[in-house]
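Lay summary. Proteins are chains of building blocks that fold into shapes, and those shapes determine what they do. In this project we predict the shape from the chain. Here is one chain we studied, written as its sequence of building blocks.
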Amino acid sequence: MQSTFGKMLKITISGESHGEQIGVRMQGFPANEAVDLQAVEAFLRRRAPGNDPFSTTRKEPDKPEVLSGIANDVTDGAAIEAIIHNQNQHSNDYESLRFIPRPSHADYPARVKYGESLDLRGGGHFSGRLTAPLCFAGAICLQYLARRGIYIGAHIAQIADVKDDRFDAVKVSKEDFDALHKKPFCVINSKAGTQMQTRILQARSEGDSVGGVIEVAVVGLPVGLGTPLYDGLESRLAANFFGIPAVKGVDFGSGFDAALMRGSQHNDAYTVDPENGEIRTLTNHAGGCVGAITTGMPLILRAAFKPTPSIAKTQLSVDLQTKETVELNIKGRHDPCIVPRALPVTEAMAAITITDLLLEDA
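And here is the predicted shape, written in a compact code that computers can read:
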């Protein structure tokens, strides 16, 4: 399996959902960079399961154990390696599924490709559990970026049919991110957030699940970051975001809405900021990226997440041994909506990708 991505900063994710441990290796991260491990653990807690009524009841402390690369809270230039021990697996929940692939999971194509020995309990290496070590790497990158005046934040833009307000694509700021992170449910419009929670709880009560959209913003980026044309900023971000389990779509700026606009509506007119003399745009339909490189405006992107495929409703599948159609009732502990816990994952992936690009441009 290809579980490594990045150019100057190579990230390798290892482990399985129900294995003894999961881990991450960060090759190429600069030396002499301070790392606040308490802040890293706080970031991981935002993703950790079992902390609210909208997520799985599987409880994992997700406390990382640093093996190398950080000494006395400073990076030493060696590869940073860390592991997280799995402590609350219910592997017996998956014994009956060994030869019955779950709909919309990777079970069937993965078994065909890698064989019957593949550990698919809880999704195995395809599980969202593997986003925990990804968040460890992302938290370190977020600290690296913050020291350079670059900040990243995200909010729940949509759950089912309920939409939150969007970021102000021109004026979004670090202060907006700080305010969002203080909220127990990360939305701009609290009324919309209440409606979203109702949709999630309703789906859970019916043995079902819902999907949604996360909007991510990056502020403080320099002009010209990225490499045109086929390995540019959008290409790298989109490719990496599709590595997050359950992501089914990524768009930037106005995204698909741009297809409904005229050029006179979509074009971002340039202006000079009277306070600092910087060149900016009056609008930001481009989402901070034109020609695969940054414009200096906030980078705005959205990721669409499918509904959690493990649901309590009876579904149809096939017994791979008998080749007969069977009814499937999935047991176990699953999120009725993955979106709230995926928020820090999107921030982490954006931070890793932007750090990689900055190191490449250095």
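What the prediction tells us: The chain has eight helices and 18 strands.
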